Amino acid sequence: MKAKSLFIPVFIAIAASLVQAAPASIEDSIASHASKDGIDLSVIDSAPTILAAIADTYRDKGVEYTQENRRRSAKPIVRRGVGNIFDVHAHAMPDWYRAITPFTGGNVAVGSGGGFPTPQWNVSAHMAFMDTIGISHSVLGFTGPSANAYLGDKARTIALARLINEQLAAFARTYPDTFSFFASIPLPYVEESITELKYAVNELGAVGIALMSNHEGLYLGYDLFTPFWEALDGLGGRQIVYVHPTTPYLKVNNQWIPANPYFEMDQSRMEFYMETARTFMDLTVKQTIHNFTNTHFVLPHVGGAFPVMIDRVLKTVHTDLYEASLEIYRTRFWWDSASPTYFHQIGGLLAYDIPKGNLLYGTDFPFINAAVTAADFDSIMAYPGLTDEEKEDLLSRNYQQLFGDKLYFS
After folding, report:
1. What are the pLDDT digits (tens) for 219-246?
2. Which residue, among 392, 289, 274, 359, has the nearest Cα to 88 in the 3D structure?
3. 271-302 per-position pLDDT tens digit
4. 159: which residues sit within 8 A by CB, 6+ positions away?
5. Rounded distance, CA 206 to CA 209, Å?
6. How far apart are CA 348 and CA 359, in angstroms?
7. What is the C-alpha separation between 67 and 380, in angstroms, rounded?
8. Model-level pTM?
């Protein structure tokens, strides 16, 4: 009798502690996971609004919030005679993010650093756009500045990366046939970036990560980032890094100054192409791409200004890297078509004997409207340097070679 009387209060105490520990809501669960990783979401003033938006993404579709790493499946869809189109370059821009960074590539501290107003976006509009082209599946990522909206503010950068990734995971989980995602990473904070990398890939189900061309003015081959590349490569299997250009910065008197010498030109039209060249040349000459062989890279806009820099740099001051680098560009580099790249630009890339099996389709939605996207699509279909079969591969099959078992191909 005495043993039984002792058991009852102990049981009640354990049960009470479990009830108390259980998250009361999706918002609490997300905050709890963040807290376990040392992330304080409350450092962002709008965190309650953001958490509510993420939770509503699940609730609106009646989907349970879990940390299960689910496979994605792309529904086959036939449009314009080319089949199941896969968009590897598309952006999610929920209202809460547009409120934080109203200018593309910009940041809170310097205002309109990118100079291009962030467009409105929602899931319904994105799906309607996909239907106009015949796209069945899009890989979503945030454009610049991504998690680097608060330059120099470590706590808020780390918190914003987590909120971005929870939101992207919510889109992918509630629309698994339509969306998957590239995770945001809070570089230049390396230790915290490794934590976010593992959480996004292993828990949230990211199919890859999205890095900016620079993080607080540091390009991707910077020595400080080596432990991050080691951690990424050490995950095993094929790791996919999508790199998006962002605003270049110079740090002067402890302040970041947008390094745009030609403010009359929208930065995303000119400097973004230069940014892609800068960071991939940095990754090359620092031999990051040579040293971490599990990692594959997706280059936007068929490489921007990077292809025209290859011979100029590697045939002059880094001749010892030339052949090895070209081999990597032909095997572990993948080149998306976003923007008007197939009128003439693609010819310069293919002159390096880049395999056509490494060409991917991307739209840059919502930054490129439907009319321009249709014109860009037609330029691919009219491009004389690809056979009809190669064009269909670019649109509908090459991505399978890149993603492999990270996606389920129905």
Report:
1. 999 999 999 999 999 998 999 999 999 9
2. 359
3. 888 999 999 999 999 999 999 999 999 999 99
4. 34, 39, 40, 41, 43, 44, 47
5. 7
6. 13
7. 39
8. 0.90
